[in-house]
Design a protein that fits this description.
Elements lengths: L5 E2 H10 L4 H4 L13 H14 L3 E5 L5 H10 L4 E5 L13 E3 L6 E8 L9 E4 L5 E6 L6 E6 L3 H6 L8 E3 L2 H12 L1 E9 L1 E2 L11 E4 L2 E3 L8 E3 L2 E2 H8 L2 E4 H7 L10 H5 L1 H18 L8 E6 L9
Bound molecules: S-adenosylmethionine (SAM).
Length: 310
């Protein structure tokens, strides 16, 4: 059945989350690499669990459960681990790890949402030649776009005012509301981690992107590929009273160190040297500029641990 053009947010929602949608039929790791696929990341989260004495870790948008699977041996049986994910439970997941399609009412502990906000569908808007902000519509079959009705939004005025004809934005209010809802359930620490921009660095033409099979592809909301857009992290932080920190700083504060092991170790304990070298490589990937190190952590600490404070 062919479908006419839809508001981007509707097309995006269907493409990712409807029956047969991208995240219902495939795991993120089949298509792209995130911090949770890098071994050293779980070590930093385990350190956070230890410092905050969290009895529970909830991973929101848990993908294939990679973070929880890596955490499980590090934090021990006393810490409950739960993945919240629209896709079904991964078969190989340790039986002690819980799995649910929805967030619990309360999270007494640590809530982590790695690369979750960028997949929350948004309205997309464009300033037309007459200076009117219009909603962008998209044909789900081929990605062709047209401009729809005039679009009013106080969020745009406050956070991403468009200046010149042709400029575009992804309207972040749905993401702010989603993260505020998640944080409101937390008694402990809530952390969203994502790529994003702040008011002084908004991309003039937006950041809608698609990925599939390890490659960037044409942006088409047909269910065969990821649809993502960078997060307006300053507005999401303001909506939740969160502190914004770059991933490289957060991980260093949690003790990750990307320096190479001393060469003497290669002689005194070659296998320890090889292990340390591999870890240094992983940390380098997690804190590297132009990549994962530039990601933003939105940290809300309802118990005043101050765990990630300088
Ligand atoms: C980009 S993937 C990130 C997966 C994993 N956190 C990682 O870092 O590799 C986003 C995940 O969030 C899930 N997701 C999106 N919205 C969700 C929701 N409201 N509830 C549960 N899972 C959701 C998607 O199904 C997808 O697996």
């Amino acid at each position: 059945m062919t479908m006419g053009p839809l508001p981007w947010r509707d097309a995006w929602e269907r493409a990712l989350y409807a029956d047969g949608g991208f995240f219902r039929t495939s795991r993120p790791a089949e298509h792209f690499r995130t911090s949770v696929h890098v071994g050293a990341f779980a070590g930093a989260i385990a350190e956070l669990v230890r410092r905050t004495d969290a009895p529970l870790v909830v991973d929101l948008g848990a993908g294939g459960g990679e973070l929880l699977a890596a955490l499980q041996p590090l934090v021990g049986d006393d810490v409950e681990l739960v993945g919240v994910e629209v896709a079904g439970r991964p078969e190989a997941l340790h039986t002690s790890i819980g799995w649910s399609p929805a967030l619990p009412e309360r999270v007494d502990g640590l809530l982590i949402a790695n690369e979750w906000l960028d997949n929350i569908p948004c309205d997309v808007v464009e300033l037309d030649d007459a200076g009117v902000v219009r909603e962008v519509l998209v044909d789900p079959g081929n990605g062709a776009e047209t401009l729809g009705d005039a679009y009013e939004s106080s969020w745009l005025n406050d956070w991403w005012p468009l200046q010149e004809p042709g400029e575009r934005a992804e309207v972040g209010d749905a993401r702010d509301a989603a993260w505020a809802d998640a944080v409101s359930r937390v008694n402990g620490t809530a952390i969203a981690i994502d790529y994003g921009h702040t008011r002084d660095s908004r991309p003039p033409f937006g950041t809608l992107r698609s990925y599939a099979g390890g490659r960037e592809t044409e942006v088409v909301p047909d269910g065969s590929r990821d649809i993502t857009a960078h997060v307006a992290v300053d507005s999401a932080a303001a909506a939740t009273g969160a502190t914004l920190i770059r991933q490289r700083d957060a991980l260093r504060r949690l003790g990750l160190d990307g320096s190479r092991p001393p060469l003497e170790l290669a002689h005194s304990d070659p296998s320890a040297y090889v292990r340390a070298l591999a870890t240094a490589g992983e940390v380098g990937e997690l804190i590297g500029g132009g990549g994962l190190g530039d990601f933003w952590w939105l940290v809300t600490d309802t118990l005043g641990h101050g765990t990630l404070a300088t």
